[in-house]
Design goal:
This protein is an all-alpha fold. It is 72% helix and 0% strand.
Length: 310
């Protein structure tokens, strides 16, 4: 029986996430336990893991009692040491995660203006750190209209106010300090695009992109085959993660120079799909062996990235 398999005991155990968190913390701090940057990066990742866990629980993304989505997120970022040190690359992923958490809580609400305002407020704050993040606003409008069914004139205006408020305050501050040209100087590098020299990219870039593409394909195919088992709300949330992961996968190919920022965004949006796959996939006897094999792949990725970082 499925419930007696090793994989089921792992994905349904309440100890899985704490065990992954402890191992991840050891791996995270192993290069230099006295590094403040690593400790702060670990704290930021821990906060994101908690928000993701609450998002999963609030929207019941898994049909069984499991913390596999958060565990996948923890293991994945532990296996990518180039994102471990604290930096601005954490801000866009954290902002988008909080934005999604707030937005999903407004599912089918009659008056969702407050949630939409705060969701887009956090989104624009993340976009002020990493401007390409603003592209996700198009997908969020699509989600609001066709999935969450909360897109009205009121919520549309609330989203505009949420995005404009930080910009107004920023421009006012720069105007008072007579530093208004800084706003345009900040955006200038993003207004031109040059095709990257893909031949010059290191092998580690292609290994990480190939690994995450492989895991996403497993998640996509599994969810395409089994989404009818989920509630409508769960499907709406998962479709949003699918669209976002596709967007960030395209961006990481187009903007490889932003690898740490985009990889963190991509892992955050991929973890729900991959965790859903490992927690709920059935249909063949060798699934436990396949599950253990993929755990070894995550370990191998972490070892490889660590070697490249030395």
């Amino acid at each position: 029986m499925y419930s007696n398999t090793l994989r089921h005991r792992i994905v349904s155990s309440t100890l899985t996430l704490p065990f992954c968190a402890i191992v991840a913390a050891i791996v995270w701090l192993l290069p230099n336990v006295r590094s403040i940057d690593l400790w702060m990066g670990l704290a930021a990742a821990s906060a994101m893991t908690y928000v993701l866990l609450e998002l999963v629980n609030q929207n019941q993304l898994l049909r069984i009692r499991s913390r596999m989505i958060s565990a996948c997120f923890v293991v994945w970022i532990a296996a990518t040491p180039f994102v471990h040190s604290i930096g601005w690359h954490f801000a866009p992923a954290a902002a988008l995660l909080i934005s999604l958490f707030i937005l999903f809580s407004a599912y089918q609400k009659e008056r969702a203006e407050c949630e939409v305002f705060h969701a887009f407020l956090f989104l624009i704050l993340g976009s002020m750190v990493y401007p390409p993040l603003i592209l996700t606003s198009v997908l969020l409008y699509f989600t609001m209209g066709l999935m969450l069914r909360i897109l009205t004139f009121r919520t549309f205006m609330a989203s505009l106010l949420g995005m404009l408020l930080p910009l107004w305050l920023t421009f006012a501050w720069l105007f008072l300090r007579d530093e208004l040209p800084l706003a345009t100087a900040y955006l200038t590098p993003w207004l031109s695009y040059h095709i990257p020299d893909y031949a010059a990219l290191p092998l580690s870039f292609w290994v990480n992109v190939g690994f995450i593409t492989f895991q996403l394909l497993l998640g996509y195919l599994h969810y395409y085959r089994t989404n009818f088992n989920d509630k409508i709300r769960v499907r709406m949330c998962m479709y949003t993660f699918i669209l976002l992961s596709l967007l960030f996968l395209a961006l990481v190919i187009l903007l490889p120079q932003n690898m740490p920022t985009l990889m963190l965004l991509l892992i955050m949006c991929s973890a729900p799909l991959v965790g859903h796959y490992y927690a709920l996939a059935r249909g063949w006897r060798a699934m436990t062996l396949w599950f253990l094999f993929n755990i070894l792949l995550f370990v191998a990725l972490g070892v490889y990235n660590s070697e490249m970082a030395i």
